[in-house]
Structure formats: C-alpha cells, structure tokens
Amino acid sequence: MLERLRSGEVRSLARAISLVEGRLAGAAELVKACREYGGTGLRVGVTGPPGAGKSTLVDQMARWLRQDGLTVGVLAVDPSSPYTGGALLGDRIRMQGFSEDPGVYIRSMASRGAMGGLTRAAEEVCTLMEAAGRQTILIETVGVGQDEVDVIGLADVTVVVLVPGMGDEVQSLKAGIMEVADIFVVNKSDGGGAERVESEILAMQGLTERRGGWVPPVVRTVATTGEGVVELMETVRRCATEKKGLRTRRLGLGAAGGGLDHLGIAVRSIAAARGFYEALGLTVSHEETVEHEKVKTAMLPLGATRIELLEPTEDDSTIGRFLAKRGEGLHHIAVHVEGIDEMFRRLTAQGIRLASDGVRVGAGGHRYFFVHPASTGGVLLEIVGNATGSAE
Ligand SMILES: Nc1nc2c(ncn2[C@@H]2O[C@H](COP(=O)(O)OP(=O)(O)O)[C@@H](O)[C@H]2O)c(=O)[nH]1
Ligand SMILES: [Mg+2]
C-alpha cells in the first residue's frame, strides 16, 4: 500500500485516507511509514467565518498552483463543505474543473466525531497526502470553535479570510483566529467596504504583540474572479521563506528544482569543438537542430549540469551574429525553474528586460525564455522549465 501511495496514484491515496480515518487494521503502521516521507509539502491553512469565500478562494489557489506545475491536496474540514469523499455535492460545482486533473486531490472531513480527535485525523491525512507526493496542501477550516483553531496549527502558513460588512464580527473573531493569522485576506472586495475592514485589521494589529517581526500583510481578493490571487500566493511564499524559513524545495521554486541547468557555448563547428570536451571525458548525450533558432545543439552532461555547444545553421541567426561580433565563447547560462509561466509573468510584471517575447519550446522539448544581459549583470540568462507534456 505504501508503495502504491508513493507512486502518487490517486485511488490508493483515497484508500489510504479511508483506512486511516476509520482507524482500521494497519492504519497506524501506514502513517508511521509515511512519516518518513512526510513534512515535504507546504501546508497552507485557509480559515474564516462561514460564507467568507474560503472554498472559492481555495479553488483559485489550487488553480494557481497547478499553473505553477505543483500538485495539490485539498483538505476541507468544514461541516458545510461542498466536497465529500473527493466528489461534489449539489450545485457546489466550483471544483468540478479539477475532476479531470489528478494533480488536485480533494478530501473533506466532518468536523465532529473524528476518531482520536479532529486535529490528529487531519494531521494524518496531511502526512498521507505528502507521502503521495502532494507538494502543496490547502487546509480549509471554518473559523469557529477551538477544534478548528487547533487544526490550523498544522499549517505552515495561515490565511485568515474576512469580508467587508463584518464590523463587530472582526472584534469577536479576535480572540480566536486573529492571533493565528500570517496573512489576512479581505475577500469580496468587489462589493465595497474593503478599506474599512482593512483599517480595522491594521488597528487591531497595533494591539497584538507579535514575535519575529512578521507583520501579517493584508491582501484584497475577489475569489469569484481570481483577482488578487497572484498577490496572495506570492505573499504565502514570502511568508513561508521569510517567517518560517522553509526550504524552497517545499515551495517548488527553482534552485532546488534543478539549479544550474547548463552552460551554453557558441562554437563555429560542433564537430570541431566536441573533441576537446570528449578528451575531458564528457560525451554528447543529445544532438538536435532547433529550427526556429537556426541552431544546432549538442548536450554534454557534466555532473548535475551540462555543457551545451551551439553552432549556427545560418550566419543570420542569434548565434551567427554572436560569433561574428565576439567570436566563440560563453554565450549564456541557464537555470531551471518549476513554474516557468509564472516566472515569465512575474519578471514581466516587474518590468525586467527580457530577451524573449514569450515562453518557447527548445531542444528536448524543454520550455525556455531568455533574460536580457542588461537585467542580470551582463550575462545572457536562459530560464528553463520542464519539458512540454510534463506536469507543468
Ligand atoms: N461577490 C463575491 N462573492 C463571492 C466572493 N467569494 C466568494 N463569493 C460567494 O460567496 C458565497 C460563499 O462562498 P464559499 O466559498 O462557499 O464560502 P465559505 O463558506 O467561506 O467556503 C458563494 O456564493 C460565492 O460565490 C467574492 O470575492 N465576491
Ligand atoms: Mg467552504
């Protein structure tokens, strides 16, 4: 069972959770074995009053994570949850878009009567999901009662969702979930009144003592349209690294996803240049002509990275012009990132000068774009994503 679970197969994850929820024979052993692989997902708690738009927001967050190439587990601990056993109820069809996507696994859990306690059950489900390779786990709980507050304690980053027009409610929530907030969301900010909630939150923060210097930011969203979700997710990541000091691997960010992908060297002739590298003991693992770049490439694996020799197929091409101007030499360095589309959007949004007008497909089916040397300190930088057809 552990083996099937580790393969990421959705059906065995579902079966494992049922086994653990029902405290059936073997459950304890399975959880114990999974703990060795657990703790690798980023757990994001989403809590707030009923009707605040938590489920709608979780749906949007899951969508964003999928676009970033990450697998998602959703655990809804809410008596009014629209999901049940991974299936949908009635007209609550928002998450239907995921029914065909095995990259999003949704599970709900009744908030009362869990054997051995709700928090324990929820923690075990998170562990199983992580062992099954879920990279981000979204835990939705309704922000009432001590049980739910305890569940939020499982999260690495806790998002408290509030809505305009709450007035006194913000005050009464203060005692419970306000203290656990890492990030405040003012959802339904399309209806007006967002400023008021925001200033109430800020006023309250003045009163609350905070350790560690992280002041929970306030992000406005419209969960129904997805507005503000990019900012929310970037804030979640910032909180995970800055406040919690989590390793980027848990966030699916670049460095640990591959680091330096290759060094690109412009040569007049691959046939002439490869001899030297072969004398070093390297071998060409892959040769390919990329028509739209008018370049022939040869990849030579070097430890965890590679050397890419680039030979122009025409003088009037990027590499051809480079050779004419500078002669042979280091042309670019390439780093690998998870979520290349998101990276492209982020750099574009920040006004960083790029040398590509979009994400393109290159050698080996890998997706890439270039950042202009003016932005990087004088080095042409290639950002490489996963190959087309993979999770991304
Ligand atoms: N106008 C507006 N409606 C929203 C927004 N977010 C959620 N809703 C609606 O609010 C209702 C409650 O949303 P739901 O996600 O089920 O709330 P939950 O109980 O906190 O999980 C639904 O009818 C949503 O369509 C928003 O940003 N703006
Ligand atoms: Mg809900």
Could you walk me through the main structural features you see in this protein, from its secondary elements to its overall organization?
- The chain has about 400 residues and is of the alpha/beta class.
- It folds into 2 domains: about 1-250, P-loop containing nucleotide triphosphate hydrolases (Rossmann fold, 3-Layer(aba) Sandwich), CATH 3.40.50; about 255-385, 2,3-Dihydroxybiphenyl 1,2-Dioxygenase, domain 1.
- The protein has 13 helices and 17 strands.
- The strands form 3 sheets. An 8-stranded mixed sheet has the order 11-12-13-10-14-17-16-15. Strands 5-2-6-1-7-8-9 form a 7-stranded parallel sheet, with helices on both faces.
- Helix 5 (about 120-130) packs parallel to helix 6 (about 145-150).
- The longest helix is centred in the middle third of the chain and has 15 residues, at about 230-245.
- The model is unreliable at about 80-95 and about 250-255 (pLDDT under 50).
- Bound molecules: guanosine-5'-diphosphate and magnesium ion.
Chain-wise SSE layout:
Blueprint: H1 2-6, H2 10-21, H3 27-35, E1 42-48, H4 54-67, E2 72-77, E3 83-84, E4 87-88, E5 104-109, H5 118-131, E6 136-142, H6 145-152, E7 157-162, H7 168-173, E8 183-186, H8 194-207, E9 218-220, H9 229-243, E10 260-266, H10 270-279, E11 286-290, E12 295-302, E13 305-312, H11 318-326, E14 329-336, H12 340-349, E15 360-361, E16 366-371, H13 373-376, E17 381-387
Parallel strand pairs: 1-6, 1-7, 2-5, 2-6, 7-8, 8-9, 10-13, 14-17
Antiparallel strand pairs: 3-4, 10-14, 11-12, 12-13, 15-16, 16-17
Helix pairs in contact: 2-3, 2-5, 5-6
The structure holds guanosine-5'-diphosphate and magnesium ion (MG).
